[in-house]
Design brief:
CATH architecture: Sandwich
Number of helices: 1
CATH topology: lipopolysaccharide transport protein A fold
Mean pLDDT: 77
Distance between the termini: 54 Å
Radius of gyration: 15 Å
Strand content: over 45%
Number of domains: 1
Helix content: under 10%
Largest sheet: 9 strands, antiparallel
Number of strands: 9
Shape: globular
């Protein structure tokens, strides 16, 4: 019982790879779940980093939907050093929900409760 409780308290560390460009992300969180369909969820103190560049993000929750090819960060989302293939660079961004479409690299940032999305861009 003590081992189970200790394991639940430890942060979990995993690496996710999205096929097309072989982007690797390291996800650290309080808990993580992967189902047989290939979807993935991380909950609590989520931090995601890329091995390719200095990309880093944090949120309350992360979900990866394999079928929809989306990586979604929800709750207190902070992102830095996110770069697109088109040359757009997001130095920092804050909001409530970020969706990254992993097949196209497009992203959608939303905010709720009259909060606003704030982004520092570099062209």
């Amino acid at each position: 019982m003590k081992r189970l409780l200790l394991a639940a308290l430890l942060f979990i560390h995993t690496e996710i790879s999205f096929a097309k460009e072989e982007l690797n992300y390291t996800v650290t969180s309080d808990s993580q779940i992967q189902n047989v369909n290939g979807s993935f969820e991380a909950i609590g103190n989520v931090v995601i980093k890329s091995s390719k560049n200095n990309f880093e993000a944090s949120s309350n929750k992360l979900t990866y939907d394999k079928d929809a090819r989306t990586l979604k960060l929800v709750g207190n989302v902070f992102v830095k050093n996110l770069q697109s293939d088109e040359g757009l660079s997001i130095q920092e961004s804050y909001g409530d929900e970020l969706t990254i479409f992993t097949d196209s690299g497009l992203l959608k940032f939303n905010s709720e409760n009259k909060n606003r999305v704030k982004t520092k861009l570099k062209f």
